[in-house]
Amino acid sequence: MRIGEIARRAGVSVHTLRYYERIGLLPYAPRDAGGQRSYDDSILVWIGFLGRMKTAGMPIRDMLRYAALRERGAETEAERRDLLDQHRARVRARIAELTDCLLVLDTKIAGYAGPDTRIEDYDAPLPQRRRKPARPRTSAAR
Asked: For residue 28, how many C-alpha atoms fall within 13 Å in the half-sphere facing its CB?
C-alpha cells in the first residue's frame, strides 16, 4: 500500500508518516519499481499505537525508545512494559489533574444555573489590587 493510502486509513498526514520514518518510528518501507513506498497493512496497527501514545502525551523520545526496544525483539518485553507502566502512571496523574479541573468547571457552571440553585461563593467579585501611584522618572546623567 502506498503512503497516501496508509495516511488516509490511519488518519494522519503523509508528512507525519515521512517524519516518523525519518526519525526511526517507522521502518523504512520497501520501494516499488517507481520508487514509491510500499507499506504492508500491518503497519496500520503500529501507527495506531503511536497515535494513541501521542494523544496520551508520550514524548517522542519515549516512543523512539519503545520502537528501538520493539525492533530488538522479545528479550526487551520487560523494558517495554516498564516504559509503558511509567507512562501509564503519568497519564493517570494527568487524568486526576483534569478531573479536578472538570469539577471546578462543573461547579462554576452550576453557579450560573439560575437564582434558585446559584452558588454565591463563586460569584463573589475578585478583590481588586491597589496600585501604588507611579513615581515620576528622573533622567540619569549618561
From this structure: 5
